[in-house]
Amino acid sequence: MERRRTIFGGVRLIKGAFSRTREVRGIAVWRQLERNFYSMAVACVVLWSGSGVLFAQFTRAAAQPDHAALSKRDAPQDETGRARNGMTVVILGDSLALCGFGKRLDAHFRQMPEVESTFTYMACGTNPLSWLKEKPYASIKTQCGFWSIESVAESNEPRELQDSYGMGRRSSPKPHPVPKLEDILAQFQPDVLVIQTGTNLFDLFPDRKSVRPNRDGSALRKYVLPFVSKAVRSPSPLRKIYWVASPTSGRVSKIVQDFVVDQVRADLGKAGTVIDSRTLVSYPYHHMEPDHEHFLGTDMDEWADKVFAMIQQDLSSQPLTSLKPLCESAPPAAAELTTPSESPAEQTVSVTARLVFKSKPVPLDQLLPYQESLVGFVYDIKKVLAGQYTAQQILVMHPAHIRLSRQPLRKYRVGRTYKLQVRQLEGTPWDTIKRKDDSGLLDLEPYIRLEDESKYPGENRAN
Question: pTM for the full model?
Fold first, then answer.
């Protein structure tokens, strides 16, 4: 891999993101200088005119306090001490946001006169449930990159914490807790929520080509509806939600991507707006990673710019203050209040089974920026020792990579019989981890060994 051309080995991403910030700030500084020069010129004219009255009026006007600034200081404040004269925006994003999208979108909102403060959080490997306090993601940590950009009271400069690939070092990012939507809503009282997500939901589709509407629709709903329900449930202050769906992915079919966008749009309903990013930036991308999904550079800038333009146009169509909070205008239906839960104990199955097929793991260059992956093995059932299982074969997903370390899979040999204690993959943090299954057995529900489930990094474990 040529390090200078990759997001995960070079410095192009970070440099590009910050250069945009310097450009925006430079414009703001120049405009302020223009205003200062104009004031100085007026003062010179007044002095030259020799009119003491005019000069006295000018100096009195100059000595008057800035009413805009005064109103901000006197306005009601939230828990962070910020004045609430303008709009508060929260942006959540996954690994694509870390590639430049999140930083550029954040900079756009900070330049909007109507926006008082912006809080942006980007966490690699996340799905909608990762941002909630519900199990099994209650204390989840991102292992492959984190970036926060937060407004600070009485300061024009945001506070940033960045730990991601491409920072001029060889080490991988450290684990970071994923911020929780419940805390964000309570602390910052945002008016607008922008969530960029979806890429990590593609692994819910076993072959990444076909769709089983009933089963796949139900699986997707378990990741979308709890997030939407939490976002619009009282006392949520949100008035607008923008769900930014993924740009074109080269590793899944158009049918799968269409299904995900349509399902999210149906589940979100009147609570928000779904932005189909595939219409905003062309595939293949100019600076694309080997996974045919992550990219950077001008395509990433174009995507962020067009998403912001759509949001800005929508926000300008009517005053935000005229809108009711979504908890009043679009309250969650009873069916939407179901929260995710861990895989129940009754789904645990113990069997003796003979290994008959092994898929090949995801190549490491196609795994980055993620650090974990699963690979599918197929076993013929010889005997069910405990629990209920009726199929003749079972698909077991084994960890192939943990923190980028290859797992010892050679010990599993085709033709040998193994005793397996497993549970369904659904309902575990491994469910949306990047996986590879070449068996083609779409009717088999994936399972995971109990001992492998406990190896998931970042949840209630020392790191």
Answer: 0.77
